[in-house]
Amino acid sequence: MGAAPPLKPSGVVTKSQVPAESEIIDRLREIASHPAARGLRDDAAIWQPPLGRELVLTHDTIARGVHYLPGADPSDIAWKLVATNLSDLAAMGAVPSGILIGLTLDREDGAWLERFAAGLARVLSEYDTALFGGDTVRAGATVLGCTAIGHVERGRALTRIGAQAGDDLYVSGTIGDAGLGLAALRGEAPADRFLERRHRLPMPRLALGQGLFAAGARAAMDVSDGLLIDADRLARASGVAAEIDLALIPLSKQAGLRLGEADSGPDGRLTAATSGDDYELLFAVPPAATSAVVALAGAARTPVTRIGGLSAGRGIRVLGMTGEPLAPGRLGFTHDAPSTGAR
Amino acid sequence: MGAAPPLKPSGVVTKSQVPAESEIIDRLREIASHPAARGLRDDAAIWQPPLGRELVLTHDTIARGVHYLPGADPSDIAWKLVATNLSDLAAMGAVPSGILIGLTLDREDGAWLERFAAGLARVLSEYDTALFGGDTVRAGATVLGCTAIGHVERGRALTRIGAQAGDDLYVSGTIGDAGLGLAALRGEAPADRFLERRHRLPMPRLALGQGLFAAGARAAMDVSDGLLIDADRLARASGVAAEIDLALIPLSKQAGLRLGEADSGPDGRLTAATSGDDYELLFAVPPAATSAVVALAGAARTPVTRIGGLSAGRGIRVLGMTGEPLAPGRLGFTHDAPSTGAR
């Protein structure tokens, strides 16, 4: 303890040392190049939001041992921390502006910090998002918080509310890859680079999300806890019933092979539809908007698939491979059971 | 595990039970009455910022055992979590709009949650600030993050940069109370309700901060790590030297008595000026603006005191009770030594 610590250039922290909080901030300062961050030299950022736009604000916290495996690559942890927040912005059609992060670190060393900072810089650069600020704390646990801020044209943010009976239900990309990737990363299934990458590095569907309102979609959310449970949530929020046709759920080639090997038929697809961590977009589209949504998907280079529809009623119905109604034992992960269940 | 958990009305959680994450969100929902929060039913808030204003954004994280004593009243923890963030907004002259919180809880029970929620509701109501959103996680540690968002007239946010040689240095309120209160709370000194309250319930100086730019102040920050170290930081950021006259530092009656009992003379005042957690405002004022600042202090019902000045040079000089130069062994708390040192 003593006077203010001298600011050290990055690289002075030895890899095996536990960096001091001031050293962590110095490393983050290199990433915080947006003028709003003021070089992290004040206690707050000063940012001029785009004129007349609404802001979309979200916060997610992840903890070691709960949301990621203790041995995970810190670069991937940083990517996922930011990407999952940006996925919430994507679901509302927002353009990301910046993030603030809260890093509570345990005994992570200089090498960990360097990898984390590299992943953070990469994901922020990929999605043209600024590091506005943050805080860092040393404690007996690793807890990483991220607040993401984006903007959207006034009145044009999509939410879970607004879907109507008669709408089709669409999902982007493929479903179930991340869950299968987690099983592989845990050693419960053979390694698979594609599936593991889908778990480690989710890609927020920003370009698709930003076009959905104009294309005529009525409601949207991102799929984080499992396709079925999230479809149930969207339907309940909109006051309608969802019907999901398992045979229509888009699977990657790798997921199809793996699920086919493990258990062919509806069980494999149920696994995909309840495994969570997809970070794809789920959205409701009136039939008249089909061609606009297909055109958007092409422009955004993001495949979309109709997986069912919405009708009067409440809750979710799941149809098996031959159209028979199923009663799944579970729909996905709830707030009380982490979707990446590292514990 | 199963389908989406039924939403329970608050009060169903038994006090001694560990509430599930969905139950925590239900309790927070009662506080999140601002339309931007959308009842916490979507993954993000949608907020229209005041037209043409700049936003001020800050994030602070606190951890049990590091920033607060394990036995602290959860209501006080919530107050302090929010108030310290609002203090960062106050220093820049911003009007608070809303917060997002990230609650990582360990085994805190229903009674803890109820007290925390009550304190959160109280501090947000006191400072007319909305709960925009947040996230909650169960893990093996208690880590509480808060992102606060405020707004300020464009180009009129005060920062640490801008103080000039010849400016006077002022501080609001009284200094050292919180540090003495912490000692009392830890049982290292006799109990004192006033001093303990100053530690438990900091009052962000929003009204004062919001008037400082117009009154002619050139730089400001909040005093969180100790008056001397923060004065040193302000001076360094502005490229000038600070001179602090210990005899001028404003002490409360209670702090004066306690410091007089413990060690009279400069040592007691040094204790006050290095003990941290004051959450008062420190600001630089050209002599021509003195009367405007005094008028502002009256209007904001916040006493302010000239404690020294700024001159050409670098770093900080501390003058003792008879004007003799001192060389304090420490200036306050650095990022690497928590100011409320519960560990």
TrEMBL record, chains A, B:
Ligand binding (ATP): 134-135, 160, 224
The PurM-like N-terminal domain, residue ranges: 42-152
Alphabetized Pfam families for the sequence: AIRS (PF00586), AIRS_C (PF02769)
The organism's taxonomic lineage, starting at the top: Bacteria, Pseudomonadati, Pseudomonadota, Alphaproteobacteria, Sphingomonadales
Homology family: Belongs to the thiamine-monophosphate kinase family.
Residues at which Mg(2+) 2 binds: 60, 88
Top EC class of this enzyme: transferase
Signal peptide: none
Pathway linked to the protein: Cofactor biosynthesis; thiamine diphosphate biosynthesis; thiamine diphosphate from thiamine phosphate: step 1/1
Residues that bind substrate: 67, 277, 333
Binding positions for Mg(2+) 1 per the UniProt entry: 60, 135
This protein's record includes keyword Zinc: no
Binding site for Mg(2+) 5: 225
E.C. designation(s): 2.7.4.16
Protein name from the UniProt record: Thiamine-monophosphate kinase
